[in-house]
Amino acid sequence: MSDTNLSAVLLEKGNLKLEERPIPKPGKNEVQIAMHSVGICGSDVHYWVHGAIGDFVVRAPMILGHEASGTVSEVGEGVTHLKVGDRVAIEPGVPCRYCDYCKGGRYNLCLEMKFCATPPVDGSLARYYVHPADFCFKLPDHVSFEEGALLEPLSVGVHACRRAGVTIGSRVLICGAGPIGLVCLLVAKAMGAAQVAITDIDTKRLEVAKQMGADFPVHVTTRDGREVADQVVRALGCNPDVTVECSGAEPSVQTGIFATKSGGVLVLVGLGPPTINIPIVNAAVREVDIRGIFRYANCYPTALSMVASGQVNMKPMVTHRFSLEQTLEAFEASKKGEGIKVMINCDKTKA
Ligand code: NAD
Ligand code: ZN
User: Fold this and answer.
1) Over the chain, what is the mean pLDDT?
2) Does Ribosomal protein show up as a keyword for this record (predicted)?
3) Whose CA is nearest to atom 34 of ligand 1?
4) Does the ipTM surpass 0.90?
5) In ligand 1, which atom is closest to the CA atom of 292?
6) Are residues 134 and 164 in the same domain?
7) Domain containing 267: what range?
8) Which residue has the CA at smallest separation from atom 42 of ligand 1?
9) Do both 326 and 203 map to the same domain?
10) Which run of H or of E encompasses 63?
């Protein structure tokens, strides 16, 4: 274990530096975690490059990272379900636990949400990090730290497929084969989807999707959303019951509406431009339900049991690995978008 706390701090837009920070002490109901694996998400890269996502603006130095796992190194007062040495996955968003949304089970909508590496809240890309114990999930011995970190994007997939109503026999369209599209693919299949078509403009990503179980990769070469919808229907042999949009691109959202069968569901996971044109009357008169997705609620335990039981295999998603000291290189690699998931190992002692 380290006696210092090297941390990846975004000082301001474009300026990501490794800095020594004090080792944080766990308060009541918190645990201190010696960090192991932290995955880089598109949002981490976005804050680094652009300094903001929508209304969330980086105004003060912030530690990045929110897809994370590590080993409990100290427990605060009142913690009963975890002990020093437990390996845990960290659910990065901590809500107030008291408001109507929290009490109603939709805590992802809590207005008081504190989410790692969403300004001004520090993330977990550091040697040590402190987190409320009830948002830490003990990993079985056979689940790796990397898989623990990947429970974060997997939870997005669980939430999206739940809200989409994917079930046995579903015919599913996933738009966009980035990390989020791929986790939705894994979850849809695990939930019993009969066939999954997946679109992307990038053939390399479609190849990965095929390896991960996609039945019909659909290469998008036009901005005509209806034309892509026709391609999808030809590939699937029918209109999809549900569509999970994971690119945020305007023509792709249009495809989602045109393709989804009447009475079906389109969930919007991808977050692109804040305002876009969509064929809303087409959706209205065919009773296509359009549902938003914001992160997840109550999905970590499901994601963990899916990984622990072998129901999903997340391992092929990790294509690049770096040490905490190589954080800048890791972010450059992630920005280039060459692989799928870039992982950072924060532990000096364990490979
Ligand atoms: P990513 O950028 O790696 O993947 C997006 C994919 O969409 C890329 O492979 C890209 O080539 C593809 N694409 C672009 N235009 C397309 C088009 N017209 N048709 C089909 N595919 C197209 O991003 P990611 O990490 O996989 O995340 C996907 C989206 O989900 C992002 O917009 C992200 O902000 C969003 N997201 C939302 C939530 C949420 O809670 N709603 C959570 C996580 C991520
Ligand atoms: Zn709340």
Assistant:
1) 97
2) no
3) 271
4) yes
5) 41
6) no
7) 157-292
8) 295
9) no
10) strand 62-63
Cα of 282 vs centre of ligand 1, distance in Å, is 24
Strands lying side by side in the sheet with 15-21:
15-21, 5-12, 62-63
Same domain, 227 and 329: no
Is the distance from CB of 64 to CB of 16 less than 8 angstroms? yes
Longest dimension (CA), the chain: 63
- Give the separation between CA 282 and CA 1, rounded to whole angstroms: 58
Question: Across-strand partners of 173?
Answer: 197, 243
Q: Check residue 137 and give its pLDDT.
A: 98
Assess whether pLDDT exceeds 60 at residue 351.
no
Check whether residue 270 and residue 319 sit in a common domain. Answer: no
| pLDDT tens digit sequence for 200-258 | 999 999 999 999 999 999 999 999 999 999 999 999 999 999 999 999 999 999 999 99
Please enumerate in sequence order all residues whose Cβ is within 8 A of that of 299, keeping only pairs 6 or more positions apart, or say none. Answer: 155, 156, 158, 159, 162
Lowest mean pLDDT among 11-20, 153-162, 268-277, 342-351: 342-351
CA atoms within a 13 Å half-sphere pointing along the CA-CB vector of 229: 20
Q: What is the pLDDT of residues 288-311, one digit of tens each?
A: 999 999 999 999 999 999 999 999
- 11 and 133: one domain? yes
DSSP 3-state assignment of 36?
Answer: strand
Backbone angles phi, psi at 284, to 5 degrees: -65, -50
Residue 51 burial by CB count (10 A; 0-12/13-18/19+): exposed, middle or buried? middle
Q: For residue 36, give the CATH number of its domain.
A: 3.90.180.10
Structural contact between residues 31 and 130, judged by C-beta atoms closer than 8 angstroms = yes
Model confidence over 115-161: pLDDT tens digits? Answer: 999 999 999 999 999 999 999 999 999 999 999 999 999 999 999 99
Residues touching ligand 1 (Cβ under 6 Å) are: 42, 156, 175-181, 199-202, 205, 220, 246-249, 251-252, 269-272, 293-295
Of all protein residues, whose CA lies closest to atom 4 belonging to ligand 1? 178
